Amino acid sequence: MLNTVPALATSEDRTPPFAAAARRAVVADFAVPPPGLLADYATLFKVRVTTMVLITSAAGFYLGSLRSGISPFNMGMVNALAGIAIVTCGASALNQVLERKTDRLQRRTQDRPMATGRIGLAHGLLVGFAAVFLGSILLVYTTNLLTGTLTLLTAVGYVAIYTPLKQVSTINTFIGAFPGAMPPLIGWTAARGLIEWPGVALFAILFVWQFPHFMAIGWMYREDYARAGIRIASTLENPRRAVRSTVVQALFYAALMVPASLWPFLQGTTGVAYAVAAAVLSLGYLWYTIRFARIGFGAAGRSPDLHDADAPSHRQPARDLLHASIVFLPLLLAVMMLDACGRLLF
Hints:
Elements lengths: L10 H4 L2 H13 L7 H8 L2 H22 L6 H24 L1 H4 L9 H4 L4 H22 L2 H21 L6 H9 L1 H11 L4 H24 L1 H6 L11 H28 L5 H22 L12 H4 L2 H27 L8
């Protein structure tokens, strides 16, 4: 009796050709238009990431200025932040030039302008290289040679080392933490003109902070990363090893954040109020990381696997840790600036 019953006609089949064409035209009229060039540039320059870079750089400049006994609110800060922002935007553009093919394979990045072709290869290269070069020159001219050099080296490390390494080895997370931690140190050198231990302490805080933050992101989007061939702890072939490696790294660096956050106090950069607040905030960060780390242990003592960790009860701690990390860093820097030793504000 196979194939003896005629298929029922669909509404499209019964619609006259002119009516169907008119309906498609109406649908097309209401289709969401592609983003404009301004919106594409905002994505190309990773505005949210650039904003975080500026916040941490400003904190470094502020603290460095207080160490020098001058007000941080001057044209030096404006020039430094402008140069850092331009270089950061250029590095973000070059990063998306290199990752335009892998971005197409990930749901969260497939609509980026380089991935879709809305911004062409030559366009992206020109904008990226021009911004990195001009921003570095601006920093050399308006701040000092050390700041301009460090900023340029940070961009090179991010684009030329970290980005291609993501396809090669999981060590990319560790390597990428170095350029990621440079902004507050660059802000310090813009104010002081030299590398000093208080600036290194700011670098250390940001370096350590990144690991629980990124382990949460890596876990939440591990399917995207795996689809694009990006090698991080959560995309290791052995599921149990992937879970354990992710949570062990997150826990190690979250625990390290406690002494790292107290380093500015031990160096005399801040007062006791900061030390108390830093201890509370870093212990809170550790607590959220411990909650996240429970995905590494199966129920009733069983070994973990990715099926267990995909449960909503395990995805939520990763999301909570990500949110906690985003709140933790600005709060820590704000308290540090408010309780900084030296001339306050003006």
